[in-house]
Each structure stands twice: as C-alpha cells, then as structure tokens.
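Quick log. Single chain, no ligands specified.
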Amino acid sequence: PEKKTKPVFCGGCHTDVADRLAGSDHGKAIAKTKTGPAICLSCHGSPHNVRRPSDPASPLHHSNIPATCDTCHKELFTAGKLLFEPKTTYDKTVHGRAFLKDNKAKVAVCTDCHGDHEINFPGNSASRINSAHVSATCGRCHTKELALYSGSIHAKQVARGHKEAPVCTSCHGEHTIAAHGESGSSVYSGSVVKTCSGCHSSEK
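-> predicted structure:
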C-alpha cells in the first residue's frame, strides 16, 4: 500500500517566523483550534505557488493585503466573532480611500499597523497597536507628527505609564481615521472640542 505522506511543517525551515507566529495571538488561536485562523496557507496561498511579497501576484503584495486579510475577517464578522468588518471600515478611512484610488501608493494597509507574523490584540502589551506602541507604529509613516507629539505632555504621560494618556488613535480614531480637513474627522476644527472634551470634560 502507498505510504501516506506527513503534512509539511513550514516552521521546520522558517524557524524564526514560526516562533514569532507561535507567540502571537493568531498563533495561540491556531494552537487552540489546530486549523486557524491565519495558518501559513491562509495568507501565503497555495504551497506550490508561494511567491515573494514583492511579487504583484503574491497575496501578500502591498496591493493585495486588504483583500487577503479580509478573506478570514469577513467570515469572522459574519459569524458574529468580530464587532465590525475591518476592510469595510478601512475602505472608508483616509488610508483606505487612498488605497482604493491607487493601490500602489505608499499608504498604510493592514500589516503596516498590525504587523505580519506577530499580530496581537491591542490589549496585548506586545501588540503594535497597544497604547504604549501606537505612536511608534503611526510614526513609521508620520515622522514629523511623531517628532511633534514626542515633545508633548501627552507623550510624556504615556512614557510614564499613564494608560489613559492619549495616543494617536485616541484623537484620530483607528478604522475611522479621516483627513483633518474633512468635516467628518474627529480632529476637524468643528469637532475637535468634542474630541478633546472626551478626556478634558471640566475644561469644556
């Protein structure tokens, strides 16, 4: 009788990546369910057609990232396991609209904010979107804004460990980010008092 071959373990060669994934919240979910979410093939595609992320045909090419992440997250939302569908809300943001206009543009996609093999929930202190790390994550693209923020009293309070001190997303939002000149933006001139008074109610 023909011998049944063992399933290939990607981590046998890609040890560093496997370790990063295993320590992430995605990895912990894989260990619990044994199938997913986000097993290697979920993101990289067929094992017989794995391509470098720089290849436009790769599911992990910059132009394909939102659609690739959405394949699982859409199902999770439909199953009631997510409060919102990430891609639908992302598409309405200033980043998402710029991406839809030109997916080759240097605009933030899922992995720019959440990471790749080390994706974690925001409550996880290792997460790139944890409040302690948000400013560094946003600052990878918004360098001038990070430099200004770093000298502010808000940043100093974050550095001292004050969990309620505001970071970028506290004012700008996450999957609701709009350009500051748009009337729907939380930092638009007509809305900024409401945004600030969320913390500074007595000053209002």
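DSSP finds twelve helices and no strands in the chain.
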